[in-house]
Every structure is written in structure tokens, then in C-alpha cells.
Amino acid sequence: MIRDISPEGSDPSDRADAADRTQVADPAAVPVRPAVSVLMLRDSTAGIEVFVQHRVSTMDFAAGVVVFPGGRVDPIDERTAPGIEVPDPAVHRDAWAKSTIAEVAEGWRILLATAVREVEEETGAVLDPAGLKPWANWVTPVGRPKRFDTYFYTVSAEAVESAHHQTTEAHTSEWRSVHDILAAEYAGELKLMRPTFVLLRELAGFDSVAEVIRGDRAIDPTRPEFPSNRGA
Fold this sequence. Notes:
By secondary structure, the protein is of the alpha+beta class. The protein has a single domain (about 30-215), classed as Alpha-Beta Complex (Nucleoside Triphosphate Pyrophosphohydrolase). It is built from seven helices and seven strands. The protein has helices at about 10-15, 75-80, 90-95, 105-125, 180-185, 195-205, 210-215, and strands at about 30-45, 45-55, 65, 70, 135-140, 145-155, 170-175. Strands 1, 2, 3, 4, 5, 6 and 7 form a seven-stranded mixed β-sheet that branches. A hairpin with a 7-residue loop joins strand 5 (about 135-140) and strand 6 (about 145-155). Helix 5 packs across helix 6. The protein is globular, with a radius of gyration of 17 Å. Residues about 1-20, about 55-65 and about 225-230 have low confidence and may be disordered.
């Protein structure tokens, strides 16, 4: 069963990161850090599978939730970005044209460099940046002690068969069907933050990875605004 999202503040995915919602003295002073997350996909008899990680409960951000491999942009990504090559740079520039990364010279290359580095660090898989498809952009709302401007990519697992668990930020990594993850979240067995839930629900509407990768994708940054008592 795939349910619709409940009003903001009442959905289980809204409460998944409740530990991150401590009071912030000056919300406007919290920096918004660029980050990248990658949805590695493969076909199976149960439908599309995605590589996910179950974060440990001791993390100071998104503790105990199911996430995709990724992390924030580091200075090293700015240094390695010039070496990133893709067949059509315009695809990436156009995809993020409405996002804040468009304000950074060659910012799309920095995002790809981050994606390649983070996935290799967390899963051992080495991605070809040419296979990464821009998919979504979510910005953490004002009021959180940590805020991220997160750029999501999809990629076919044909190039990432070597993915395995090797990050200390998660206790388990696994390939799992999109439908199974959503069903487990609905049953209260897994915790998903809102972006993860929304993106998985979108993927549930596709019949194959090829359909995901070849389809057109217009990206409008998502900047949720939550009621002050959200997660209480």
C-alpha cells in the first residue's frame, strides 16, 4: 500500500528526525550547507530496488532513519570538480538552474564530484559521473539546528554492482525494493524523512530503471515550511 502524504506535521516521515528539532536561538543564523544524495537503482522481480543505509541511532542528524548514500560538499570536491566530465554539461546546468548551486561557477561539477566521492566512501562503488541523472533538490526548513541544500541524483546500478556496506554512519546497508521500503514505513517498521519518502513514492510509479533514467525531469527546488510544533 502506498499512501498519500498527510498534512505537514502529522505524517510519520515528519517525525522521523524529531531528535534534530531542538530550539535554535537564531534560526536565520544556521548555515545552509550544500549536500548530495544518490539513489542507486536496479531492476528486480519485486520491482525497482534502491540501495539504502540504516543510520545508527547515535548520529546527531537523521538518527535511526533510512537514507540514500551521500553527504555534504567538502573543500576537496571543489578541487576535484574541474576533472569531472559528462557528455552534455547543459543537462546538469539546466537541471539545477532554479537551485542555489546555479549561483556558483561550475557548481554542477562540484555536486558531481561530491556524489562520486561520497558513494565511493560509503559503499565502495565507483560512479561514472556521466551516468548520474539530476532528480530533485530539497532544502531543510528554517528552524533546524542543521540545514542542508540537498541535490538528489538517480543512477542505474549496472555501473555500481560493487556497492556494499562500509560506512560507520549506518549499521546496515542493503538493496531493497521501493515498494517494500514504503510498506515497512507504513507499518511503522522503518523511519523515513520526508524527502526520502516523497522520492521513493515517485519511484514506485515507474516500472523499470530504464524508464526512470530516460524520462524527462524538470526540477523545482522544494523548500518546505513546517508549523512550529512539527515533530512534537
